[in-house]
Automatic annotation (TrEMBL):
Keyword hit for Transit peptide: no
Keyword list, A-Z: Aminopeptidase, Cytoplasm, Hydrolase, Manganese, Metal-binding, Protease
Note accompanying the cofactor annotation: Binds 2 manganese ions per subunit.
Gene name of the record: pepA
Name of the protein: Probable cytosol aminopeptidase
Cofactors (names): Mn(2+)
Amino acid sequence: MTALTLSTAGAATLRADALVVGVAKGAKGPVVAPGAEAVDKAFGGKLASVLETLGASGAEGEVTKLHAPDGLKVPVVIAVGLGPVPEKDAAFDGEALRRAAGSAARALTGSKKAGFALPITSVEDAEAVAEGALLGAYAFTAYQGGENKLAPKDKKNGNGAKLPLAEVALLGGKPRDKAFKAAAERATALVEEINRARDLINTPPNDLYPESFAAVATAAGKEHGIKVQVLDEKALVKGGFGGLLGVGQGSTHGPRLVKLAYTHPKAEKTLALVGKGITYDSGGISLKPAGHNETMKCDMSGAAAVFATVVAAARLGLQVNVTGWLALAENMPSGSATRPGDVLRMYSGKTVEVLNTDAEGRLVLADALTRACEENPDAIVDVATLTGAMVLALGHRTFGIMANDDAFRTSIHEIAEEVGEASWPMPLPADLRKGMDSPTADIANMGERMGGGLVAGLFLQEFVGEGIAWAHLDIAGPAFHEGAPYGYTPKGGTGSAVRTLVKLAERTAAGDLG
């Protein structure tokens, strides 16, 4: 991953391939942001007018490259838009800094080192810039540039993609200050785990399936002191995990339930996280229509987020117990696949009539939720790319939050907004529950079509233990980005919800669960 350093050099003396400065959108044109004073001086105090001449306005995500003048040790200056100038005496929003740093890092692909002289007035600002730059520098290249055996040995195939920016030198970060050092270390650990989640999401399903995902989790557990338990098909049959088995029985790759347990000797609270891990979702017998299968490797994004969060908690040494449950299965059509009309007996003992095999995520989550609740955690959060209905409701950049406790839902929403992840609280209307009544089983896995995302949440709520605060994050929209990259968001897997979950774990450790 891209390295992060807190530089002791000034903007005028830093030696690097490029220097990144901020420019804001003012009422009368671009405004040079704090942190760029030395650069503006090198331009004779005319940096803003030069940028305006080149068509720059300071709008968010805008990137303008300039040849550096005499007086700077770098050959190139990158001016990145921060959006509107803040109101008087206000600082730039952390998310604006994060996105600007991400845009600049993407523009610097192929560079060895770049200095970031964006406006930093606090430790939080420094951490936001660091996060944005490291997230923006991400690239998934594991399957590119392989050797072409038919070509001369000195030639390679692949698309010739450049490597990401190798080093981010953060200016204005007070490298000798313990708080700034801690912020840099947190940003590095957090982003490394988000990028681990991104890598998993982007890995093709012929290489990432339940058993191989479980192996990745086991290896990470050994590295970071996390206890890992893997239930294979035999153990799932013995334990009666009918949801996981029913979804996975059509595939040659059997299902797994993986438990990751990070514990701290001084922890007073336990947070349980449950992730949907459908490593490939064909829809099963209720086959998805053409055009909807190509990105279904991303249907394990919830499990990837949970996995990354548990590892991040361990690396940060958070004073809280965090248990992650990865409900892993591959949903395929075959002669052994679950059929619409089949009835599954879940781990909880409830029976479920399967009306649609493409509503499979709630089935594997139900088993994992029941098992997680047996350990009586103080709170439980499940994360899933669960419904297309949530994308219709909130779009591609916002995830929905449902909960059985209004205060808990509000806390998670506030945390998500604080860390820069767009989210929205959603209700669980009791009247929608009747649509899942089944004449054959205790409940059906489908209900009313309208409000389908809320129906899915109501289904999950049936499998949450009494007295346990529970929230459901439907990340179907933001988990996988199919468009052009923007800010620090790449094309492909995004690592959605990891920042929210890590901050939730930190709040829980501090006794502020909500």
